[in-house]
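Thought: the user wants the 3D structure for the chain below. I'll pass the sequence to the structure tool as-is, report back what it returns, then summarize two notable features.
Action: structure_tool
Action Input:
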Amino acid sequence: MSLHDRDERLEAAILAAVRERLAADPPALGGTADAIPPAITAAGLGAERAAALLLDTVIPGAFQIDHPRYLAFIPSAQAPAAALADTLLAVNSIYGGSWLEGSGLVAAENQALRWLADLAGLPAAAGGTFVQGGTNGNLSALHAARAAARARGERATRVAVSADAHSSIEQMLRVMDAEPVGLDAVDADGVFAVVATAGTTNLGRVDDLAAVAALCREHGLWMHVDGAYGLAALCAPSARHRFDGIEHADSFIVDPHKWLFSPFDCCALVYRDAALGRAAHRQHASYLEALYADDAAFNPSDYGVHLTRRARGLPFWFALAVHGTDAFAEAVETTLAVTRAGADEIRAREELELVLEPELSVLAFRRRGWVAADYDRWADALRASGTAFVMPTTVAGETIARLALVNPRTTLDDLRAVLDTMR
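Observation:
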């Protein structure tokens, strides 16, 4: 069988696995595979053996991050409609970087970006693109901020970063050869942007965005908001007040693959003035000029650190189109309500103590009398048994327990099952 020949048995096996996975409620949590048999040979394994290896060993050898008891890091909870759109996207050889080649895709993605921009209260000139993840989104936004500052004749060598910023901010500043400084140094020579966080990864805290906005206006600085996890809650009426000030942002990111129910990997990057993003990122080459015969064409490749790109925002758009924005708000509100109930449950248990009240959907708490090794044993045992995927964290040098919720299928009973193992 040649490389591009169809194999109907292989298609049937894969499609059956897709249907089985979509029907699973919940899916199996999964596990680890220390190694797999050698599979890359001159002759190949053939469809049957390769499919068996994929379906019986490779896929089960990973944790399913949309499981209701996956409560570590920042989970995901892809909607079936989004997963189906992603599957269809994969089997169509379509390019999402230019209007010329993918206008339907681009138009759909732009509708999803507009919804996010409207939630934040940004003007009609707002726009952007979907990039690979929050790290790429932060880099792209800060590059645009620096390009705008340099176009004004400024030095643009430093970025003011709020406390508890994501590790990707400092890493991307190293890539840019820019220096991070604290918010108390916004008037230092060369500062061109401020990065605020809307939902810190560790504890789910939201910076005072209104205060940051006032600081940026006072000093003429670009305001970027890293909302990779937390800004999803913009769509939830009960949490909207936490983001007051976002309407002043010059750029923000939010990852639909986290709390907006889309598959990996998908980060929405939105600029207040999309033209500034385009001015910073548009590439020039003889073979690209055909894309700009119509200079008004919207090319997503012009707004981030990428050229080749899949239409990674399409599954997000499709889930919005299928279910409507009210369903997204309801799903986020469900998670917030379960988080609040989980906090009450922790308070009711003598052996447990909340470290802080949850602002969004992260529960941080200690088990009285435990040390770091106890938390590690607890997390290891839950993963090994297939009960839950949890990870401890540290706050001010103290190891504590941390549960991160984004999945509306996670219930209070799920949280109780985890907390019961700490008695």
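Final Answer: Structure generated. The domain at 93-322 is CATH 3.40.640.10 (Aspartate Aminotransferase; domain 2). Residues 56 and 209 are 48 Å apart (CA to CA).
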